[in-house]
Amino acid sequence: MEIEQLEKVASQVRRDIVRMVHGCQSGHPGGSLGCTELLVALYFERMKLKENDGKVVFDMDGKDEDLFFLSNGHISPVWYSVLARRGYFPVSELATFRKLDSRLQGHPTTHEHLEGIRIASGSLGQGLSVALGAATAKKLNNDKGIVYVLMGDGEQQEGQVWEAATFAPHHQVDNLIAFIDLNGQQIDGPTVKVMNNRDLGAKYEAFGWEVISIEEGNDMAAVTKGLYEAKGRLGHGRPIMVLLHTGMGYGVDFMMGSHKWHGVAPNDEQLAAALAQLDETLGDY
Amino acid sequence: MKKYTFTEKKDTRSGFGAGMHVLGQQNPNVVALCADLVGSLKLEPFIKENPERFIQCGISEANMIGVSAGLTIGGKIPFATTFANFATGRVYDQIRQSVAYSNKNVKICASHAGLTLGEDGATHQILEDIGMMKMLPGMTVINPCDYNQTKAATIAIADHDGPVYLRFGRPVIPVFTDADQKFEIGKAWMVNEGTDVSIIATGHMVWEAIQAGEILEAEGINAEIINIHTIKPLDEEAILKSVEKTGCVVTAEEHNRIGGLGDSVAQVLVKNKLVPQEYVAVNDSFGESGTPAQLLQKYGLDAKHIVEAAKRAIARK
Question: Keywords on this record (chain B) (predicted)?
Fold first, then answer.
């Protein structure tokens, strides 16, 4: 897909995010908006997905296709929107987000059998381990698919992440590409103030990972180029870490660059102000 | 009283290792994981024959649970192994979210459960694991009683689709069940039919219960002994059928009296048929260093204490 088309999808996904969070007056818009380019580029351009007659089909095992895991499950709005827009489930279902009897739970879950979700996430620090298991299963199955996993930068404070970071190079899991959303914010404030992660790139390199950076994580061309580069480094005995520099709340001016919109929903006026900045390209749900 | 004899003593963890050896040959999807305790878990025969299907995780239990959950995506059947304390309490949230809530086909296989790991003391003697695991929706909880039953259970859980907690131990104890038994998850085993009291036991306590039954018989008391190897799902029918006959119950487990087999049985009785129940279990405390026999005696878990509990239960009828 052309960059321009991907950007159009991203604009619609951003509208979905703010409308979903507004609709239930809860959820996490900031990180969702910041990771929009990544998820759109993955699902609409980079990932090999199982399709039948041009339509995506979902099965839990995901053999012979690429897999994506969202470890920082609280940015579920962006994932749900991208999955729906890609065709995994009806776009109209986005209106049920976080409401009673919905398959779109606050944090992603397999419990409600939502197409596209393969593991529950929300309690942080677990997704990298799960992705490593799925990547290992692919190797055991001689399956050439790639496993992608996204984590938050605040999430790097969880100890389990570093257990997984040690495991991956030791077992040469080189069919996996991990991302850290470096937006520099977490609930209690800037990450450097809450708990300074210091140089994450140097840390992962010291652990034996191949580390690359996407400096403009909200520039679609830069993201697709970075994904292409990351893929080119697979298969050489080392896992790949992509440091994705994003802006929390990117695309909605009053939400940008602040931890204040980590987990706050816009009111009616704020919703209108946000939507005025985002083109409706694919039709609202 | 039906006679139970034994020709050898073995540890239940070796039964697990033997079961894994069989699974390695029979089921190509079985993958073993371990957190730096290969010898303790008796995994050497499996690893020798299937090195590509063994994943050493190092001392990183949380990651091991997550990797196991991921391995199921792609059809593998991971057996995640370590000591019971590190397999449950240390990684409860990982099991809760990535395994139980996600309904992943992970087998959590835990050795050195209970007091009878002995000299290592209370840091390793988890007495709360059955409670933690049975509270998780969808989790099957199994605590077999000897080498043969543990081997059979290990083989059986590979064919069960869903998360399982398999609990076994370190000490050598008599091997008294059939070598070629078929293990049926959720089905109680009638060890001895009786009329005066139902002794419902799990794990290492089954052999203690058999010894207690013999002592009681000498005193003219006819004990029914039931082995509940599957604590969840619980064989309620077998329990209720027994108490209809005997009118009182003793539960025996190597676990805290809070949250274990005793409480599961009590819930069945409260709902269906109120009869006196006595607990043989650790009385809401931590353990300590000592030999297995010393610890069972000090913490009130040996045959003698089961006999006393049976008499108390009968007196309350």
Answer: Transferase
